[in-house]
Specification:
197 residues; alpha/beta; five-stranded parallel beta sheet; 9 helices; 5 strands; 12% strand; binds BIS(adenosine)-5'-pentaphosphate; binds magnesium ion
């Protein structure tokens, strides 16, 4: 299996690049943000709780997101692998992910981190606010999301770095240029297809 973590601050392009990666490498996309927004749209008890937290730009509890991820992984073990987008965001989530994958006889292949400066992140998210109206894309919440990323989530890099699984690439330029950089890394890890002429 090819199991990738796509990592980076809010607005780095994780979701945008995930779409291209799943198409090329035929992976299951697992975005904890998307799952939570779906719960909110369906007004489930979890969604009602999560809405308050997301609209402040804080993190939903580890137990909740780990449970969601475990269900999704165990329901999709027959595919080529997973792309984890927006997860793990804490060391506890990273450890839990390793354990879930190990229990299913697989592991993370690589984490790819998209490097984008704060001015560009804010610019992208304010533009998305106009286009899509995501409720956490307003300037105060954006600043807090970036703060939470810098203070808590960014340290998850160290976890993968210690395992020699961390790769950082520039996340600016055109979407296609960034995808080419990602593909160059992933092609080192993707299972080689046998050639039959
Ligand atoms: P989540 O949904 O994960 O949001 P995020 O991390 O804040 O990131 P975004 O989805 O905003 O950005 P992205 O990196 O996907 O960028 P995108 O491709 O969209 O999480 C939301 C919330 O849910 C969290 O704050 C938290 O409360 C909760 N949550 C989620 N997971 C959790 C977890 N594991 N633990 C605890 N809580 C959790 O691009 C952004 C914009 O830029 C788009 O408009 C796009 O078109 C544009 N763009 C993309 N690439 C480029 C480019 N190269 N040039 C110009 N524009 C570009
Ligand atoms: Mg996203």
């Amino acid at each position: 299996m090819l199991n990738i973590v796509i990592f980076g601050p809010p607005g780095a392009g994780k979701g945008t690049q995930s779409e291209l990666i799943i198409e090329k490498y035929k992976l299951v996309h697992l975005s904890t943000g998307d799952i939570l927004r779906n719960e909110i749209a369906n007004k489930t008890p979890l969604g009602i709780e999560a809405k308050k937290i997301i609209e402040k730009g804080e993190l939903v509890s580890d137990d909740i997101v780990i449970g969601m991820v475990k269900n999704k992984i165990e329901g999709n073990m027959t595919g080529n692998g997973f792309i984890f987008d927006g997860f793990p965001r804490t060391k506890e989530q990273a450890e839990a992910l390793d354990k879930i994958l190990e229990d299913n006889n697989t592991s993370i292949s690589v984490m790819i981190s998209l490097d984008v400066d704060e001015d560009e992140l804010v610019k992208r998210l304010l533009k998305r606010a106009e286009e899509q109206g995501r409720t956490d894309d307003n300037i105060d919440v954006i600043r807090n999301r970036i703060k939470v990323y810098n203070e808590v989530t960014s340290h998850v890099c160290d976890y993968y770095s210690k395992k020699n699984k961390y790769r950082s690439i520039p996340g600016t330029g055109t979407i296609e240029e960034i995808f080419d950089r990602i593909s160059a890394v992933l092609d080192e890890y993707a299972p080689k297809r046998s050639c039959c002429g």
